[in-house]
Amino acid sequence: MRLDRRSLLAAGAAAIVLPFGALPASAKPRVPRLGLIADCQYADADDNGQRMYRLSPGKLKAAVDDFNTRKVDAIVQLGDFIDKDWKSFETLQPMIDAAHAPWRFVLGNHDFSVDDALKAKLTQRLRMPARYYAFDLADWTFLALDGNDLSEYGWPEGSPELIQARKAHRELYAGKPDWDGGVGPAQMAWIDQRLTAADRAGRKVALFCHFSVWPVNPHNLWNAPEMIALLERHPCVKAWINGHNHDGDQGFKAGIHYLNLKAMLDTPQTSYVVADFHPDRIDIHGVGKQASQTLRLGHAPATE
Q1: CA–CA gap between residue 86 and residue 67 (Å, rounded)
Q2: Burial 270-300 (b: 16+ CB within 10 A, else e)
Q3: What is 5-296's CATH topology?
Q4: What is the three-class DSSP state of 74?
């Protein structure tokens, strides 16, 4: 089956690269430092097992205060900022505004748990340039991906994008969970182009997505094998960092680190990361449930 690339992402993401213009050149550190949060997933709802929805704003505020103290260069939210309901964004807005560093949002499946008419407004609400984009800092390039462009929920009912996505699910990814998604052909081509450019420029690349691709588990992208094959063709790729699986996970394959951060939602304490992207390693400074570790580029973690 051949998918229509134009119809898949007609309302989707442009090939945008964000410079770090928010900071003067003299203020940029040699080692990029990012705050990373997975699955804040706030809702004005009672607890459901480990999911402590109403604690999320307090935990997010504490994380932002810490990020401000540690002077991160950007805060990356790895999807599922909310659990449901457009009004949930309003509760979290004061924490967004309090950050000294710019936010770099990645969209998750729960972020689309809003009225169909509002789905196209998510990027505007979160001040995202598009559903997927890139940004550079020092000698690192970061790709923020959209794992929802092939999904059962990421587009309004009756839209060409949803029709094509459901066709892909039925014909190419039958049996894959409805609460996962995939990366469509246009975005795959864009990723390949960005990685090729990074290879030629001698840059290092880390990719952020809501969904995992490795190790194999039910939370992976529908087309995880195709994504892994693409990543492994490019020596610039050093890490894939995601959320979605609230328990967290980790793997190492063909020189690439795969790190699934634990959810901020599922703990009375908290869970987030301050990550330093060195030329030869990524230092993961975990807070709360998230463990600290060093990921040496091209080498398996000591725990593997």
Answers
A1: 26
A2: bbbbbbbbbeebbbbbbbbbbeebebebeee
A3: Purple Acid Phosphatase; chain A, domain 2 (3.60.21)
A4: strand
Q: Is 49 helix (H, G, I), strand (E, B) or coil?
A: coil
Angle between helices 224-232 and 185-201 (to 10 degrees): 20
pLDDT tens digit sequence for 165-175: 999 999 999 99
Q: How far apart, in Å, are the Cα atoms of 13 and each of 232, 254, 270?
A: 24, 29, 32
pTM for the structure as a whole: 0.91
What are the distances in angstroms from CA 121 to CA 1, 10, 93?
31, 14, 16
pLDDT digits (tens, 9 = 90+) for 48-96: 999 999 999 999 999 999 999 999 999 999 999 999 999 999 999 999 9
d(CA 105, CA 81): 9
CB 144 within 8 A of CB 103: no
Burial class (CB within 10 angstroms; exposed 0-12, middle 13-18, buried 19+) of 21? exposed
User: Regarding beta strands 237-242 and 256-260, do their DSSP bridges make them parallel or antiparallel, or are they unpaired?
Assistant: parallel
